[in-house]
Amino acid sequence: MKVLKFGGTSVGSAKNINNVIDILNSYAEKDTIICVVSAVGGITDKLLLAGSLAKNKDAGFSKTFNTIKEIHLDIIKELIPFSNETILNVISDKLETLNSLLEGIYLINELSQKTSDKLTSYGELLSSYIIAEAMKSRGLSAELKNSQELIITNSNFTKADVDYKQTNKNIREYFKSTKQKITICPGFISHSKTGEQTTLGRGGSDFTAAIVAAALKVEQLEIWTDVSGMFTTNPKLVKQAYPIEKLSYQEAMELSHFGAKVLYPPTVQPVLDLNIPIHIKNTLDPESVGTIISNNHINSGIPVKGISNINNIALLTLQGSGMIGIPGFSKRLFETLSQEKINVILITQASSEHSICIGIDDKDADVAKSAIDTTFENEIALNKIDPIIVEAGLSIIALIGDNMKNHQGISGKMFSSLGKNNINIRAIAQGASEKNISAVILQNDVKKALNCLHEQFFEIKTKQLNVFITGVGNVGERLIEQIKQQKKYLKEQLKISLHVVGLSNSRTMVFDDDGLDLNTWKEQLQKGEKASLQGFLAQIKTLNLRNSIFVDVTANEEVAGLYPEYLRQSIGVVACNKIACSSNYENYKLLKRLSLKYNAPLLFETNVGAGLPIIDTLNNLIASGDKITSIQAVLSGSLNFVFNNFNNSTTFHEVVKQAQVEGYTEPDPRIDLSGVDVARKILILARESGLEMDLEAIENTSFLTKANLETKSVDDFYKSLISDEAHFQKLYASAQSKNCQLKYVAQLNNGKASVGLQEIPEGHPFYNLEGKDNIVMFYTQRYPEQPMIIKGAGAGADVTASGLFADIIRIGNK
Ligand code: ADP
Ligand code: ASP
Ligand code: MG
């Protein structure tokens, strides 16, 4: 004999009910089957909604009633196309009485818990009748048995307690007397000893099935639902969650108690002592293995088996110096809650006994507060304790596993993983049995917390990075192409799963929290919503994904101004935009501080030398205890390009134009030619070397003429370059006469920085610097005479994109 229970989705449509019938039919070939069914999916909620509308004198209840009616009539018509009169009459009668009940509630303006149970029982009464008739219409031998005649409870309406003695007797007697191969029973509903309709609590059909299974000591209880078992965590919130093959009863109980809705928590109790295994299966995918819950796999060795969450939690804190060393406070607190029938979900107490924290359902918070404040009225008046503090909008997340007690460091990993993602923990509870470690966090952070804990404990091998790129011009586009090309390699070799979740240019922006399809990003972006810098930030905040990285591929001051906001949300920042790190020293310092405080990396390797590892090398030198004594560098790919191509057979303005067209200069070439860009770069290197410096402190002797420097637009600038051609030819001729090359050099000596054009003699490391290359020479305590030299292409979209990419990977490898 087997007991099978089918949930709301499984009986949610004619198609799914046909699946159920096929499953029952195949089982019945070998066994006697008892089938417990839920209400059609969503109907219990609709019944409660109609009830609450009616109670509030809202005539809209009849609209909800009509929906309920149509759903059932549609199903029956599809299941039994030529339904006979009797079936339709029975259903119409039931619906009619339901309507009368709702009208009654509307008239008297009252919905007691007792009436609520009467109301919700229609869900299961209707579904079980329909399924039994559908089976009969297919010629199958199935009988309906109303569980209300079997399951007897007290009068604790909406969540009644079972009288096992009477219930077991009823069940045994009934099933002894029937020879039916298949019996259909409604779940969830029951009767009190005094003859009233009761229910077993929301989700209670699972419990009905367990009660029947235990009374008859069947060999297996199967819970058929809409997912393939009990998952490592809620599959609706974590895409990577997967079904757990085997669980102990204790683990299943903890997981369900802490929110894994797939199993109603009391379900385990009746079958536990009898060691009847519970098999969770998927009606929509009957072939998948599912989860087996029993006592046979207690020592599977795996420490963490699952993670669950309960939302809508309020945290009550009772505190005050008057509590220390005085017995009876907890007793009075819990007695008060018990009198109000308030369920305590989590308790923590500081060892000083100065405060007790309890987690309860949000909806009980007001009642709890006033009851507790009344209980401790005297102590509050005497200032011995404070009025109770209530914090709402919280959730509990819990790691579950029988074997956690045998492993060190689980809670350490849990909390550091949450901390790294800026998830604030309000309270922690860990039972002495160590089957469960729970933490109270903001409800808003639940999805992120589950995802990062799941990654930590179940996908240790891959780390997901969620990247948001703003600015998809030349460099941004290359970056996306490089990411697309390297995705597979990153996943397989570096165990980094890189998702580009958001993209924006100045016109539109687009998001997909599963990661955008990089084959069609341009089309998606074009169709995206209107872009705004604040809107982009707001959306990243709302998505609240773990390991989020904001990539700034603009040269925009406003974008740079938002870095503090990103960092404060623990969102990493990768920038090729130099503005932030070369802005005033206070701001640079603030960014560094925020990055440390919120554990949000701030990387800007491409600020100096595009893709060359200059800042990273400098950071490594300093971190390993070295000290920079001097830096000599050619840091402008654009200026190097210009002076390498300028001679007495070319003109200066043509060479500058060419550099701009080929993308080697900033959109406004004056930023490069005036030396400002190079000054910003040496400033960043100076700061990264540990110096407190501002841009004004950098000596900048310009090679441009006063007229060049005073132009108001790029066009005027070009015109003035044409007029001053003789000036530039003179610079060239002077260098030429000394057999020197013109190089734009940045230097840092004894804490002083300068930039300017220099005539470099033959033999100097800068002399042969080609094309748009950069070179940096670090003189340090460890490299006093022979400097550490980094040299290579220092400008261009591809190398800059690869520098940004390297920064993203650096974050991934952390
Ligand atoms: P039924 O109507 O079949 O009783 P429920 O809606 O009560 O189904 O429970 C199944 C749902 O439980 C799943 O669709 C899933 O969204 C949710 N759920 C939450 N946590 C888990 C988990 N750890 N494993 C599986 N499902 C879970
Ligand atoms: N129909 C009830 C509910 O929705 C019981 C169940 O589905 O298990 O809560
Ligand atoms: Mg359920």
The CATH first-level class of the largest domain comes to Alpha Beta
Q: Which residues sit in consecutive blocks of at least 5 with pLDDT less than 50?
A: none
Radius of gyration: 36 Å
Give me the number of helical elements: 29
Distance between the termini: 55 Å
Secondary structural class: alpha/beta
Shape: elongated
- Number of structural units classed as domains: 4
Named CATH topology of the largest domain: Carbamate kinase
| Hetero compounds | adenosine-5'-diphosphate, aspartic acid, magnesium ion
How many β-strand runs?
Answer: 30
Q: Helical amount among residues, as a percent range?
A: 40-55%
Please give a quick description of this structure.
Helix content is 42%, strand content 21%. The chain is built from 29 helices and 30 strands. The strands form five sheets. Strands 3-5-2-1-8-10-11-9 form an eight-stranded mixed sheet, with helices on both faces. A seven-stranded mixed sheet has the order 21-20-19-18-22-23-24, with helices on both faces. The chain has a six-stranded antiparallel sheet with strand order 13-14-12-15-17-16.
Spell out the blueprint of helices and strands.
Blueprint: E1 2-6, H1 14-28, E2 33-37, H2 43-55, H3 61-79, H4 85-108, H5 113-137, E3 142-144, E4 152-153, H6 164-177, E5 182-186, E6 189-192, E7 197-199, H7 205-215, E8 220-225, E9 246-248, H8 249-257, H9 268-272, E10 278-282, E11 291-294, E12 306-319, H10 329-339, E13 344-349, E14 355-361, H11 365-375, H12 377-381, E15 389-400, H13 410-420, E16 425-430, E17 436-442, H14 446-458, E18 463-470, H15 474-494, E19 496-504, E20 508-511, H16 521-526, E21 529-530, H17 533-543, E22 548-552, H18 557-561, H19 563-568, E23 572-575, H20 585-597, E24 602-603, H21 614-623, E25 628-634, H22 637-645, H23 652-661, H24 670-673, H25 676-688, E26 699-701, H26 706-709, H27 714-723, H28 725-737, E27 740-749, E28 752-761, E29 773-780, E30 788-793, H29 797-813
Parallel strand pairs: 1-2, 1-8, 2-5, 3-5, 4-6, 8-10, 9-11, 18-19, 18-22, 22-23, 23-24, 26-28
Antiparallel strand pairs: 6-7, 10-11, 12-14, 12-15, 13-14, 15-17, 16-17, 19-20, 20-21, 25-27, 25-29, 27-28, 29-30
Helix pairs in contact: 1-3, 2-3, 2-4, 2-5, 3-4, 3-5, 4-5, 6-7, 10-11, 13-14, 15-29, 22-23
Bound molecules: adenosine-5'-diphosphate, aspartic acid and magnesium ion.
Magnesium ion (MG) binds at residues 7, 203, 206, 264.
